[in-house]
Amino acid sequence: MTLCLTDLPTEDIDDLKICNQKKDHKDNRWRRKLSPRHTGYTSQFNENFNTEAVSAHVNSFNDFIDSLNTTIIKHAPAIVINLSTSKAIKVEIVNLTIKPPSFTPAFARETRANYCGPLHVTLKVSDGPMSKTVVINAGDVPVMVGSKLCLLHGKTREERIRLREDERDAGGYFISNGQDKVVRLYLDCLSNTPLAFTKYRSLSTISEFAPAGVHYKGVREDGHVYSTVIQARKDNFLSVKFTIDGRYIYVPLILVLRALVSTTDKEIYSTICTICASAHPKEDGYVSLRVEAMLRDFHKYRIFSHKACKQLLGGKFRMILSLLDRYDLTDVDCCDLLFEQYLLINIPKEDTRAKFNMMCLMARKCLLLFGSFIKPDSPDLLSSQEALTPGAFFKAEVTSTLIKIMRLVSRNATSTGAIGSYELSNSWISHYIASPKLWRPLSSGLRSLAGPGVMRAYKGHDYSNMSGLSVLADRINYVRFLAHFRCINRGNAFATHKITSIRKLYPESYGFQCAVHTPDGAPCGILTHLCYKATVLSSTPTTDQIANLFILLAQFGLSPSLSDIYSLCVVLNGTILGYLDTNERAIQLVACIRAAKVKSIIFPYTEVVFIEKGNKDHLFPGIYMNTSMGRFYRPVHSLTNNSPEYITPLEQIFLQIAIYGDDVRLGVTTHQEITPTSLLSILGLLVPFSDHNQSPRNMYECQMLKQTMGIPCRNLAYKYDTKSYLLTTPQKPLVRNAIIHDIGGFDTHPTGTNLVVAVSAYTSYDMEDAALINKASLERGLFHGTVYSVHDIDCYDDKLMRYMRTVATAVPYLKRSPDYIVTHMDENYDTELDEDGLPPVGAYLSHGSVFYQTYDPTKQCYSTKLYHHEPGFVEKVIVIHKSAAKGEYWTDNDIATKKKRDSSFPAGDSNSSNLDNDASDDEISNQPGSGSESNEDNQTATPRSHASKAERKSSRQLQTRARTESSSLHFIQRVRIVIRHDRTPVVGDKVASRHGQKGIMGIRWRQTDMPFTSSGIVPDLIINPHAFPSRMTVGMLIESLASKIGVHYADFVDSSPFQWSDERRAIDVFGEQLLKTGQFNRYGSEVMYSAITGDPMPADIFIGVVYYQRLRHMVSDKYQVRAEGPSDKITKQPIKGRKRGGGLRFGEMERDALLAHGAMASLRGRLCTESDATEHVVCAACGSLLGMQLGGSVCRECKATGHGRLIQIPMVLLVLANDLAAMGVRMRFNVSLVE
After folding, report:
1. Which regions are flagged for Polar residues bias (predicted)?
2. How many CA atoms lie within 13 A of 511 on its CB side?
3. What global pTM score does this model have?
4. DSSP 3-state of 961
5. 10 Å Cβ neighbour count for 727?
6. In this predicted model, what pLDDT tens digit does every residue of 1069-1117 receive, in sequence order?
């Protein structure tokens, strides 16, 4: 029933095609055209599918690498040390270089290392004409796999295989401690755009401030981030908020404007009142009155000159900016430094006029928001958000850390005063500036970002307190790993919010955020995923494209100065370029810009939005263009230019986009969707017939698809995740969405099996989502799987080792004791350890078996470690050595070439777990052909075959000798052991279809008792029909029909959504095809016969083929039972947690159930005698539980004697009585009936 076209011989395929051509098919659009020759990938496969899916991560990191010696060096702070006793000494950073790692990602995973490259900082210390260059090693920096620094960059598919990598792995992640970590896309407000908010994290909640402000997140080209905020006060005045080292300082707006440029009150008044002004007299009058009031209020300071304003601000901020020791800086210089670092930092410091104009625009927008003339921007809309990529985080971390380091250098130089001349400063340079400890925060901060996902550089503003940015890129299956790179995270803090505005899917999110791919529960709507065609901008325009844009603007008469006529501002990347006069001219300009985008005359990803004056939506007018990285974009078809065009969520609001051709209205519609499926993500598109299912079921399937066992990767033998899952007999789905399945090549990593499924209430074992499984199908290998767990053995810690070396103390190492006795043995398996103290490959470890032995030279004793995990077989043993000379880790793979060339070395070592890898594959060069002669077919450890015991013993001796010889220089102290656990399906394991129909295996039913069809087909699974009415998964029923056609013609069937309509229904198309076969019913039902009586069943049974998936949720991982075990030290109750040996919670609802049944003895047993029962003495005179002790006769409260009663109570009651007594509450107990 699972025959496919690509699995048939060529001559059989030709016969089928000839037979099919003779039949008259009126509707063959559901048929797919496939190459008859199987090559692993179909002809529709897109080689760049994975590369495009992870492009936002890889390209952003490449941009970070490119910016190290361009924009970051350009804006790197340079300090000038000018003491009264010496000449001025200048310290500046001239070069930042990250070198490629010296080993491959596979080697980093194997040795639990960080995939990093050394960061070198080049400093230039100059004293007049003399200068000195210092190169400092700042530590190891994480390198993204797949980036231009990765050793896999540019490698072909064959070369990736030789390097022990998945041939389709495009990178986009980091390797931290041997684990793959991905920094997810993080949502934040738009950069370089003034946004008007009524409630946002940057707005003050102090009583004197009104809930109205304009937030401008400035992002410099080097990645440095700082936000400028103008907020309205309740007295109608405006203040500028500065956030410096966690301190909030509010400065009057007029003072900032007067300090920026040499201006007058009239110019300030006219600029704020004229810029983007509308013809509404009430709006203009409101703004003019507020500006006049602010100007009058500023006159009380008696400051009238530009220089006086700068001196005032510089004097006030000198201490805040930590410039008290900079005697060479005047107050004016301090003010300039303030504006450069903390005011609209994306605008160059020399262009103060541009900052002045933008501050006036923000002031007008804030006043209009405060007066309710415009609508506020919502921080929850995607049009007000952008994605922070890994490259953006790295750039921000580096720039912020460099600022801090240079501040420390300046303070140290001033405090020590040790610089008398250039010659005398050499010691200061070598001992302080060139100290790696000073520059180590650069690398440690980046490692913290790539590993735990914590942003450490920014404190007090913007990216402060950001954590959970990176997650483990687990490979439960292929699509789960791919989904990590399409994920958009709003932040863990939002998951606890009980409001729906942050979780809604707004219209501007169409085509950018998937409508169904979001988890249920707390992160619903917070953790979303990009649609298939959407991505994040990670490139910048070229110089020619920017020049062409300026030429285009000049052709439309862009005025550089503001006037009453030219008042409509044109903004590019947060900077006002000029002004236009009328809305008509602006419409023409925007149309020309869109035409230039399509032809790539200008940057094709330029965002251009025009909001006309006097619009009915109460939006702030202007022409806004942006080319900043981090913006979302997707392609649509432009009807005006008849070609694809990239748009952003903000542009989408102002465009008329049709989905189908029938929806196009002449003169109104501007664009059309390229495909109706553009609203779904990659995982959402994998659901067959998703337009026939209830929407929550598609959401559930997106989550269950990421929990399915399958083929996670092609290099599973070299993956060392904590737990890996493998489905033994996966199959290609007969029914698949042709729009993405073959393009993405998902057949290379299948996730399920085609089953014959019957819908019938056959027994009572199929209630509540349980299903009957054919026992014979299970015995043939259905749903069989394997779980691999990795156990790390480390005899010492590196920090402890460094200390122990100083005291010349030996450390423990792995070794078997001479008097070791076999603790467990049967006819097939044994747990005898090898001479190195490790279990041999193929050994069976059960609970309580000896795992390994170590020897402590200091104590001169052996210690034995027992195995307390799930039973399994030793699949692989990897020995990691520490070389004192090299100071680096290496494995037995590094000496494989030497061993294979040694004629005296036994030839039977091919079964060894770690001796068959070529060192040239880990320490490779950049030549494409490096490592081509290595034999990679024998790298993995082969399980021990259950041959004769003599053969097994000989094989163990060969493995032991190999490991012993490889560790001749150093003892074995670090080992990784891979254990294989066979997971045969059992009752209670979870399975699911691709339509959110999840359930468990109810019972393993014998095939002789299963019903069968007239052709002898016996179902593999029987599902209860009650699973369909409430869940409305009609797509699963249609899949069953379509699969029967695919089986009959030995071909795949297309199930892409949105290709059906009321005139062309799926059930009619597939029903007609079933009738033409002459073997099936139109609606998929068939007569089935009882296996018990042999008579036909009175009703027809719906039966077909459905693609089912086995989920990772298995009884072996979840069952929990205990008789005795650890308990809490205070309450004496059993602890919780399966891993800790805890018990099951007996909660309130369980208690209510026993109360309803009147089972008092059982209730007392659960809550007292079998839990935390204890004997205690209570005073019958005063009823005190705390007054008497065991063995005592006098009550400490009432002083009565002889009234003690021994009772049995739960220990938690005694704890409660003590807690209440500490709060002054006394409990009394009536024990008069206690004998």
Report:
1. 925-945, 956-967
2. 26
3. 0.86
4. helix
5. 23
6. 999 999 998 889 899 999 999 998 999 999 999 999 999 999 999 998 8
